[in-house]
Amino acid sequence: MASSRVLVVGGGVAGQQAALDVAALGLPVTLAEAGPSIGGVMAQLDKTFPTNDCAMCILSPRMLEISRNPRIEILTMTRLRGMRPGLPRPDAGPP
Questions:
Q1: CA distances (Å), 50 to each of 14, 39, 47, 56, 59, in order?
Q2: Where are the domains of the chain?
Q3: What does the pLDDT read at residue 7?
Q4: Can you point out the beta strands (E) in the chain?
Q5: For residues 45 and 10, which has the higher predicted lDDT (pLDDT)?
Q6: For labelling, which of 9, 10, 26, 44 has a CA lying 20 to 30 Å from the CA of 20?
Q7: In a 10 Å sphere around its CB, with 0-12 CB exposed, 13-18 middle and 19+ buried, how is residue 28 labelled?
Q8: Is pLDDT at 76 greater than 70 in this prediction?
């Protein structure tokens, strides 16, 4: 079987969970985020609904887990320009 790498576009809560789930299956993951850091809109919030939990208290452990996972590569300030068959990596670069 050819080696596979999964591209997850967007470093918000859903993208982070997708990257962790894929990495748990043993596949290498590239997590591409357009902004300067992962976290998405939730990282900008003070509290979450409906529990009023601290947003960063929820995000921080997940972000730490992602940064320490050897199967996950994080690319920030990256926009996907396109995908072509046969390329080993996505055609991605600065915005």
A1: 18, 19, 9, 15, 16
A2: 6-79
A3: 92
A4: 6-9, 29-32, 72-75, 79-82, 91-93
A5: 10
A6: 44
A7: middle
A8: yes
- ∠ CA 69-73-74, nearest 5°, is 110
Which residue has tokens 């390329």? 87
Lookup: tokens for 67 = 């940064």
Question: What are the residues whose beta carbons fall under 8 Å from the beta carbon of 68, sequence distance 6 or more?
Answer: none
Residue of 78 and 85 predicted with greater confidence = 78
For the domain with range 6-79, which CATH number is right: 3.40.109.10, 3.90.1510.10, 3.50.50.60, 3.90.79.10? 3.50.50.60
Grade residue 10 by pLDDT with cuts at 50, 70 and 90.
very high
Which of these, 25, 42, 33, 44, lies nearest to 9 by C-alpha position? 33
